[in-house]
Specification:
Elements: E1 2-6, H1 11-22, E2 28-31, H2 39-44, E3 52-55, E4 63-66, H3 68-78, H4 88-113, H5 117-141, H6 154-172, H7 182-193, H8 195-198, H9 205-214, H10 219-224
Parallel strand pairs: 1-2
Antiparallel strand pairs: 1-3, 3-4
Helix pairs in contact: 1-3, 1-6, 4-5, 4-6
The structure holds glutathione (GSH).
Glutathione is lined by residues 7, 10, 12, 34, 48-51, 67-69.
Length: 235
């Protein structure tokens, strides 16, 4: 029995949810409010961050696994439908590009938190440079929509939630970050259509992300203007 402790917007949670869906592994999702963390969560999560995967085994103590990369590796070790390539060198490269995906997520946080235009432009240029590296790697490796040729892999699971941010950003403006990158555009589209990627968030995710971005009081919040929010479900 697996329970994924989640937050509605967290891209690291989405990685784990996508992996579980690709592996057709049943799991429960328990969503918490990170602004008001429940005591039971703080007690079991040493870093106080989601995702945490609770692994319950009959007759044994439930084990909390924290850190998304570790959760992904645990699921590779224990669940069917491998999402890592078999060859060690290729696995290492995949792990490296997963790490790079986490660096991109930090860059995205810098973008939406940038207090003024100067910091915003700096953050967008830095992100554009990172995506340029990803595109070069992708173009050199494959002509199929996925990072590892015909097989959907963990790298795809990591970049699906990354590109999802841009569905909201694109509604606010064209910041040039993904402009003129046809290989990335094809990957982004394929990821957006993948059932596991779509299902990793609730239907009101775009509205929730808008509300989160608007509240940052950042340069991006100002660019959004007064927002007439899309409805957010009470759940
Ligand atoms: N390195 C962690 C990052 C997870 C992370 O940053 N989670 C955020 C939400 S997306 C969180 O729980 N933040 C709460 C906090 O920092 O208090 C992982 O890969 O799991």
């Amino acid at each position: 029995m697996l329970t994924l402790i989640s937050h509605a917007l967290c891209p690291y949670v989405q990685r784990a949810a996508i992996s579980l869906a690709e592996k057709q592994t049943p799991f429960e999702r328990r969503t918490i409010d990170l602004a008001d963390k429940p005591d039971w969560f703080t007690a079991l999560s040493p870093l106080g961050k989601v995702p945490v995967l609770l692994v319950e085994q009959p007759g044994e103590t439930t084990v909390p696994i924290f850190e998304s990369a570790v959760i992904l590796e645990y699921l590779e070790d224990t669940q069917p439908h491998p999402l890592h390539p078999a060859a060690p060198l290729e696995r290492a490269r995949h792990r490296a590009w997963i790490e790079f995906g986490s660096a991109i997520l930090n860059g995205i946080a810098r973008l939406y938190s940038a207090p003024d235009e100067e910091a915003f432009v700096k953050a967008s240029e830095s992100l554009a440079g990172m995506f340029s590296r990803v595109e070069s790697e992708l173009a050199a490796r494959t002509s199929s929509p996925w990072f590892f040729g015909e097989a959907f892999s963990l790298v795809d699971a990591v970049y699906g939630p990354i590109f999802r941010y841009f569905d909201n950003f694109d509604q606010i403006g064209d910041f040039g970050i993904l402009r003129d990158r046809p290989t990335l555009a094809a990957w982004r589209q394929a990821l957006a259509n993948r059932a596991s990627v779509k299902g990793a968030v609730s239907d009101d995710y775009p509205a929730r992300l808008d509300a989160f971005l608007a509240k940052r009081r950042s340069h991006l919040s100002v660019l959004m203007g007064p927002t007439d929010h899309r409805p957010i479900s009470a759940a």
